Structure prediction request, 132 residues.
Amino acid sequence: MRLVSQALGVSICKNLFLCNRQKTQFYLLCMGPDKPFHTKDLSSQIGSARLSFGSEEALWELLRCAPGSATILGLMNDRDHRVRLLMEREVYEAPYLSCHPCNCTSSLKLETADILEKFLPHTGHTVTVVDL
Prediction:
């Protein structure tokens, strides 16, 4: 991954597919690749107790992504808006982000503004900025 990040000139986001304990609320967390993830810190910010990783089946059903391929671009497949997008502040404020195109065999470098101002409005999703 480091070689790909170097070639693109931007770190590839770590994307985590999460859910609440009841498996009724789903989240896609986009964060920096080297940032530690503590569920307690995130849970309090979004008002959801006991976060865990969502199942492979739910990831496929909602985003049409296989494990290891979760990506912000998968939101185009979430037509019922069941997945809430969470972006770590540094990723949100960066000029570019890099992610997989719903397949982990390649990576894209995109302008963050294009994701926020064009892609998300097109999919009908909004972003919640979180601090990790």
